[in-house]
Amino acid sequence: MWTIPKPRYKNCNSLDTRDEAEIAVNIGGVKLVLYGDVLNRYPESRLAELINCSTLSYDIIYSLCDDYDPGKREFYFDRDPDAFRCIIDVYYFGEIHIKRGICPICFIKEMEFWKIDQSYLDECCKSDLTEKEEELAEIANKVKLILDDLDVVPSFNRSARYQKSLWKLMEKPESSLPARIIAIASFLFVLVSSLVMCVGTIPEVQMEDDEGDLVEHPTLEAIETTCIGWFTVEYLLRFMSSPNKLHFFLSFMNIIDFLAIMPFYVVLTLTYQGTAMMDLAKVQQAVQALRIMRIARIFKLARHSSGLQTLTYALKRSFKELGLLLMYMGIGIFVFSALGYTLEQSHPDTLFSSIPQSFWWAIITMTTVGYGDIYPKTTLGKCNAAISFLCGVIAIALPIHPIINNFVIFYNKQRLLETAAKHELELMELQSSEDSMVKATRKSGALGALESSMRTSRSDNSIPLIEESTRTFKSRKYCSETESF
């Protein structure tokens, strides 16, 4: 039996009967002896209520514990003993630390059972709890997305059913074979369009028009028009099937898709109608500027690449490190360009005409590029250049490691979340099948042992977000079963 020593700094004459009392509790097979003067420090906790009502009726006692042995005066709790060892510290130290290896979400459930407020958690444990809650919310969102893709709920509206099918066809490549074929075709069209844009700039491939200017080959223009037609149809179908039109417009990837399509139609408008509104030279300049925007379509590859998406999210989480990198480089560029300009003024053929013009030299030197178009000629200027590129290497290397760590952590976290979401779905399906067996057994009148055996595998350490997804899964399965009958 694990006995917690009674405090010796209390004045025994000031203790009443309840403070002098002691109770024996059995937490998941671990026996403890607790004292009333310790438990009454938090009178609203479950243990304080238990020691204060130990002389009352058994109904009140059994409402506070799982079982009670009057002979041994021992209270039984079917709870986690490791978590209780952490919770009992609040009576002695006024704060609680979650030991390593205990799930923070389940630990909060234990604290709610023992009626201990979460404010007694230490700050380090609160940060771990917040992180776990965020991961849990992400798992629940992934579970909901997977449940939406299951499509087990019949749509009462035919148009809504067609809209959802079209959305899955255009946005969920893993949902069916046709959706996967469309995703591969879209990926190939992006590659072909980018290749045509590059090949069209080769002078040997271009042709001369009536005025002697080089223009793209007609075959390349036809391929470009075909690709734009595919992108346009794809964008319109995704827009029509989108469940939330506003979110569709504001999505970053959809903005990229729009920017990849828009220049083509603007160029057509300016080519055939722009000459009536402005000079031909201005129309050609506008057309060339818009054709440059075709490079935005290369970002469409991120829609079909989970690696590029992971890299984007990792960079978003590394804004602090990227800011430090820019700050280090900015300070170094300013300092070394000013020094380079000052030290090179004594040379008659100096290439440093001003400090702003020296910024370019500082940038290519600190990034170890060194084009050679501007370089120092004096001895002190060369020493300044050597120090500048050494400082540049250090300034770049310092924030790179945290950025790489963020990428690795986020990538591994995404894989774990996907695995956890699939595991939750398997548990939901298993629980749903067990519930259907219980209902069938209840109808036949032989419930007994089957229901009791199933109850033993469940605890009150449930997760609300996953429970909501479980109820959604059950309701959808029930709807599909009733529709089949």
Could you characterize what this model shows?
There is one protein chain. This protein is mainly alpha-helical and 485 residues long. It is built from 20 helices and seven strands. It has helices at 17-20, 36-39, 46-52, 58-64, 81-87, 90-93, 104-113, 123-150, 158-171, 177-199, 218-241, 245-250, 252-273, 280-292, 306-316, 319-343, 355-366, 379-444, 448-455, 464-484, and strands at residues 2-3, 22-27, 30-35, 67-69, 74-77, 207-208, 214-215. It has a five-stranded mixed sheet with strand order 1-3-2-5-4. Strands 6-7 form a two-stranded antiparallel ribbon. The two termini are 58 Å apart. It is found in: Cell membrane. This is Potassium voltage-gated channel subfamily F member 1-like. It is a multi-pass membrane protein. Keywords: Cell membrane, Ion channel, Ion transport, Membrane, Potassium, Potassium channel, Potassium transport, Transmembrane, Transmembrane helix, Transport, Voltage-gated channel. Residues 180-414 form the Ion transport domain.
What is the straight-line distance between the termini? 58 Å
Gyration radius (Cα, Å) is 35 Å
Mean of the pLDDT scores? 77
Overall number of strands: 7
Low-pLDDT stretches: 1-16, 446-463, 472-485
- Main beta-sheet strand count, sense and barrel state: 5 strands, mixed
Portion of residues in beta strands equals 5-15%
The outline comes out as flat
What is the helix tally?
20
Helix vs. strand class: mainly alpha
Q: Percent of residues in helical segments?
A: 55-70%
Order of helices and strands: EHEEHHHEEHHHHHHEEHHHHHHHHHH
The strand order across the widest sheet is: 1-3-2-5-4
